[in-house]
Amino acid sequence: MTIRPILTVPNPILREISKPVDAVTDETRKLMDDMLETMYAAPGIGLAAIQIGVPLQVIVMDLARDGEPPQVKYFVNPEILEDVEDEVPYDEGCLSVPDVYETIDRPERVKITYLDYNGERVTEWAEGLYAVCIQHEMDHLKGVVFIDYLSRLKRDRAVKKVVKAEKLKAAG
Ligand code: K1U
Ligand code: ZN
Fold this sequence. Notes:
This protein is of the alpha+beta class. It contains 3 helices and 7 strands, in the order H-E-E-E-E-E-E-E-H-H.
């Protein structure tokens, strides 16, 4: 498994629309393995393929808390079938916008369908952090980053903060 670099804003690749995967093959599984390794190394609780520069509809997630056994989930070609009207706020972060956390409102429950690691179809309701995270990750597949829900002022500040931090990192 390989840890791959995570793209950060304002990299235009993060704005690309991800394409559906034709079939879940060993190549797709290798991508998912690399994504999981990359997500754990970051560390994070979710990752979309476009965040490592691959424009395919693939997401990995592990919502286990410290000390809990892993709860790894893989999503290929996920779709939202239904959501509820009620929205809940959550303080979201994003590995592509490091060290920025902002409160975003999203539907509290969503019914999703996707192919898993073995290419089997799964259809289920997601709620709580699972609902927040899958909606955040599925936004990435549409080229949407969570700061897009903020005011222009807050969004610009967030991007500037990331660019400055990246410059400092590059300078050593
Ligand atoms: O960049 C990403 O898409 C991953 C992102 C997922 C996410 C977090 C919170 C709300 C919605 C979506 C992250 O993983 S940010 C890092 C993070 O939340 C975290 C990191 C270490 C421990 C616990 C959480
Ligand atoms: Zn993100």
